[in-house]
Amino acid sequence: GVGRITSRLPKEFADDVVASVLELFSDSEGDGAWHGGCLALAELARRGLLLPFRLPEAVPVVAKAIQYDVRRGSNSVGAHVRDAACYVCWAFARAYSPAVMRPHVDKLCEGMLLAALFDREINCRRAAAAAFQENVGRQGHENFPHGIEILTAADYFTLGVRANAYLKISAFVGSFAKYRHALMAHLYEVKIFHWDIAIRTLSSHALSELCHLDPEHVVQVAIPSLLPYTSSADILKRHGSILAVAELVAALKPLGKSLPEDLQTSIVAVVPAIEKARLYRGRGGEIIRQAACRLIECIASAELPLPVKMQLRLLDSLDESLKHSIEAVQLQAVAALRQFTRSYFPVGPDGPSARLQARVLDKYLEILRTADIASHTRGHALAVGALPSRLVAFSPENLDKVLATLCSSAAVGSRVGDEPDAETRRNA
């Protein structure tokens, strides 16, 4: 309606309508205004009513709309706005010549690619890909470098699976230097703090997939920018940043890229700092525990140098997580323990020292035999299975002791306290 009426007006009056539509894109307006404004802009552009001299005002608001995501409680609002913004990009491609669009394509190209690869909603990813395809076809490869190669990989079907878009297609697009830093920056500045835990987890894995393309940028920019958020009061920022740092540390190891000493010290100090600030407490504490266990696992897989005191401190952290009542936390702690005990605690030809034996294996077996709390026995049964053979089977007598304890815990009549516990038996 707005488009048809505007097309009948004189040029000056029509431009007043365009100016009024552009005023809708204000932070004080709700999502309805942004959605309607995008649809109106697209219609005006399609009918040739959004004149080229207005593009410097229109393009920045469209680029902002394509990333529109406003928190409402435990969810967010904005998928319809992002979808409409993709429609505007599609309309711009059809309305203007490549020469007119050339000064503005970089902003729009970046916005469309980020939405196509990293948007939470499948319809927005596909809408952004369709808009990008239209732009590549009509604006030419001068305005959209590597457009054809990207379209071949990022199509309607490959972007339909979110994990595929994040982990496979983004790594392919990141192989082109023009887009690489924009993708990485969007992940560690925006997506890693997303309200949806699945997006935060995927973003951390996507960063590790992109890490090999520019490890220097990761060491100099990405990790230092994330570390301050690991003690943030906002649980989303805290969780996302811990996960991202963990995955990046693990991804750098196979590349042979060493971290500066001060950065290593800061990374190793993250878990003790979290515990000192008591950030495991309260709502969401269990996901912070999982992220901390993952960070310990990645520190161990990267074999960062740790003094003995810090090794024991991190082992204490894992022991606490083994007792947690939520199974996901226990499983992550066991995965971390498996890597941690293989990377640290060297064992001589005569087997482990009596102190190490008492601190790890004997302690776990004692808890498994005598604990009255089911979550403790469940976690420590799994932990015994995760220990390396050099701690468990350095002598036949020791192995017999371990097997006897596990068989006793797995027996049909075994009890934890006064109650039978199927999960302890299963884990044993």
From TrEMBL:
<dbReference type="GO" id="GO:0007023">
    <property type="term" value="P:post-chaperonin tubulin folding pathway"/>
</dbReference>
<dbReference type="Pfam" id="PF25767">
    <property type="entry name" value="ARM_TBCD_2nd"/>
</dbReference>
<dbReference type="GO" id="GO:0007021">
    <property type="term" value="P:tubulin complex assembly"/>
</dbReference>
<dbReference type="InterPro" id="IPR016024">
    <property type="entry name" value="ARM-type_fold"/>
</dbReference>
<feature type="domain" description="Tubulin-folding cofactor D ARM repeats">
    <location>
        <begin position="1"/>
        <end position="148"/>
    </location>
</feature>
<dbReference type="InterPro" id="IPR033162">
    <property type="entry name" value="TBCD"/>
</dbReference>
<dbReference type="InterPro" id="IPR058033">
    <property type="entry name" value="ARM_TBCD_2nd"/>
</dbReference>
<dbReference type="GO" id="GO:0005096">
    <property type="term" value="F:GTPase activator activity"/>
</dbReference>
<dbReference type="InterPro" id="IPR011989">
    <property type="entry name" value="ARM-like"/>
</dbReference>
<dbReference type="GO" id="GO:0048487">
    <property type="term" value="F:beta-tubulin binding"/>
</dbReference>
<protein>
    <recommendedName>
        <fullName>Tubulin-folding cofactor D ARM repeats domain-containing protein</fullName>
    </recommendedName>
</protein>
<dbReference type="GO" id="GO:0000226">
    <property type="term" value="P:microtubule cytoskeleton organization"/>
</dbReference>
